[in-house]
Amino acid sequence: MLTLLNLLKDGRFHSGQALGVALGISRSAVWKQLQHLEAELGLTIHKVRGRGYQLADPLTLLDAEKIAVSTPGWPISIFDSIDSTNAEALRAVDRGQTAPFLVLAERQVSGRGRRGRKWASPFAENLYYSLVLRIDGGMRRLEGLSLVVGLAVMQALRKAGVPDAGLKWPNDVLVGDKKIAGILLELVGDPADVCHVVLGIGINVNMQATDEVDQRWTSVRLESGRICDRNVLAAELNSQLRAYLQRHESEGFSGLQAEWEANHLWQGRPVSLIAGVNQIEGVVQGIDNQGALRLKVNGVEKVFSGGELSLRLRDDS
């Protein structure tokens, strides 16, 4: 099927006869493969008598050589379809693969975000990206790390034509009130000694419609009005991550605190902080030098951190 997809990815019409000759199969076999492409990968293929078959949109598949141009020291594995890039990254750590390395996929069948939420992962439309790092030297190198990753994602999106991309504590990148990217960090090993951290990043790139998302969302294409080359975006993300990770290592999170606060879209906004069955009302004051949220609650500033917290704007904001 993917051989057929490579013939169609230019977005032009191809006759059934020409496709059959290229693949060495009959026209009826071509038709069956086209049906599989539509059903299996969710692609839309136009069929016009006398002209042939055409993808609704041209596809640019992920290319390790193009992505690696900015970070040649980060080996890249690209999968056509996988459960999730984070899951494969963790398996690679278990197999003993040397970090840093990257796992990307054209599609995830079990993509996930924070708190176990499903992450919509249509074929060849978005960026499903996991970078694995080895962490030596204890917890200090992990302080505020997810927020640092958010800065890198935000800057990559701005370079891609989304100038209004901004941050929401702790792990989202938004445009206005619409989510465009999410971050999921997973840790394996001993954080007090040697461990590995997987920086999982999902970016809505060329997606225009889906019924799998239960919140307001947008994409690079919807914001910029044009198809985005995912290889260019992934290479830029690599470059931004390398720069921000180097700053984080040398300065600690405190060196990036002011920049993060300056790009936090909910700074000064009334919010509800949800922790399990508990809900805390307050006004966002910012973050501390470890990346924890500072909230003014009943006139008193309090600090909150933890992976299971969720922040929402209050109805009266």
Entry summary:
The protein is an alpha+beta fold and 317 residues long.
Explain what you see.
The chain is an alpha+beta fold and 317 residues long. It folds into 3 domains: 2-55, Orthogonal Bundle (Arc Repressor Mutant, subunit A); 64-261, Bira Bifunctional Protein, Domain 2 (BirA Bifunctional Protein, domain 2, 2-Layer Sandwich); 266-313, Roll (SH3 type barrels). Helices cover 29% and strands 28% of the residues. It has 9 helices and 14 strands. It has helices spanning 2-8, 16-23, 27-41, 64-67, 85-94, 145-159, 220-224, 230-251, 257-262; strands at residues 45-48, 52-55, 76-79, 101-105, 127-136, 165-168, 172-175, 178-189, 194-203, 270-275, 278-287, 293-297, 300-304, 309-313. Strands 3-4-5-9-8-7-6 form a 7-stranded mixed β-sheet, with helices on both faces. A 5-stranded antiparallel β-sheet has the order 13-12-11-10-14, with no helix packed on it. Strands 1-2 form a two-stranded antiparallel ribbon. Strand 12 (293-297) and strand 13 form a beta hairpin. The longest helix has 22 residues, at 230-251. The termini are far apart.
Fold blueprint:
Elements: H1 2-8, H2 16-23, H3 27-41, E1 45-48, E2 52-55, H4 64-67, E3 76-79, H5 85-94, E4 101-105, E5 127-136, H6 145-159, E6 165-168, E7 172-175, E8 178-189, E9 194-203, H7 220-224, H8 230-251, H9 257-262, E10 270-275, E11 278-287, E12 293-297, E13 300-304, E14 309-313
Parallel strand pairs: 3-4
Antiparallel strand pairs: 1-2, 4-5, 5-9, 6-7, 7-8, 8-9, 10-11, 10-14, 11-12, 12-13
Helix pairs in contact: 2-3, 6-8
